[in-house]
Amino acid sequence: MEVLKALKSIKHTFEIHAGVFNLKNDVQKLKGFNVSCVQFDFTDVTTFKAALLRCDILFLLRPPQLSEVQKYFKPLIDVAVSCDVKHIVFLSVQGVEKSKIIPHHKIEKLIVKSKIPYTFLRPAYFMQNFTSTLHKDLVEHHKIFLPAGDAKFTLVDVSDIGEMAAIILTESENHVNKSYELTSNEKLSFGEMAVKLSKALRHKINYESPNLLKFYLTKRKENMQVMLILVMIMLHYLPRFQKEPNLTNVIKQILKREPKSFEQFISENLEALMH
Asked: Which terminus of the chain, N or C, has fewer Cβ atoms within 10 Å?
């Protein structure tokens, strides 16, 4: 959605086609974005060709629940080749080149192997996780509950990613076979994030870093799916034993402004972070 918002705000001559799972419902959701909707389902290969036939540039985003790369993404890339797609912009993840176990690594390899020109966007930890996966603990329990210890994380606001993607999609010839790590200008631990949230929300946000067993059992009791718990562990626990990720100035170079800070994210999303 952030990519569509950004595309709407810049001048371009492209026709935008949005691949949607439910034509009836999603057409209404995307009303006002000046896009035409086409039926697309990652789990149904028969929808691929019609969706990609008129596509010169493909923006590819992996649904979190789909991790079987050969099953879902290999057929999609093969159809993209057969439909003569000219460029793929793939939303990957920072550090992907060093982490062979995550699906994004294998998807990047598939795209490179296809010989389709590409741009890989490798964002840091989403600030918007606090308005989605971490929201319930934040609002209901006034805490951050993650097995991240004192590890430092690079962060990025999703709206910055959307603007970056929009520029690259509309100026793809300037970004052929490039990979960009997208971060803000700060590294923070979750303890430090809790302090900043406490100050802005005007009540104490506690940070608790449980052991893996306690984290797993607590989240299962909350009916979180096992696969999502494992993803949460991979995102938050493994960085404790890895080299700190780098900060980059890519957003400033391409957007010609500073990336949004964590304080700015909190300020712009105060209502959502409180309720």
From this structure: C
Q: Helix %, strand %, coil % for the chain, to 5?
A: 50, 15, 35
Q: Is residue 252 part of a domain?
A: yes
Q: What is the pLDDT of residues 207-238, one digit of tens each?
A: 999 999 999 999 999 999 898 898 899 899 99
- Over pLDDT 70: what percentage of the chain? 100
**How far is it, in rounded angstroms, from Cα 165 to Cα 171?**
10
User: Domain count of the chain?
Assistant: 1
Parent domain of 115: 2-125+156-183+246-259
Q: What angle do CA 234, 3, 192 make, to 5 degrees?
A: 45
Give the pLDDT band (50/70/90) at residue 239.
very high
Euclidean distance between the first and the last CA atom of the chain, given in angstroms as a whole number: 22
Task: Mention every residue, 6+ apart, whose C-beta is less than 8 A from residue 175.
Answer: 119, 168
CB atoms within 10 A of CB 65: 11
- For 134, the 3-state DSSP assignment is coil
Strands of the sheet containing 187-188, edge to edge, are 125-126, 153-156, 187-188
Residue 99 lies in a domain: yes
CA–CA separation, 141 and 230 (whole Å):
22
Structure tokens at 130: 């606090």
Q: What is the reported pLDDT for 161?
A: 98
Q: What is the CATH number of the domain that holds 251?
A: 3.40.50.720
The residues facing 208 across adjacent strands are 145
Secondary element (H or E) of residue 208 = strand 206-208
* Tokens representing residue 48 in the block: 């691929």
Six token digits for residue 223:
């009916």
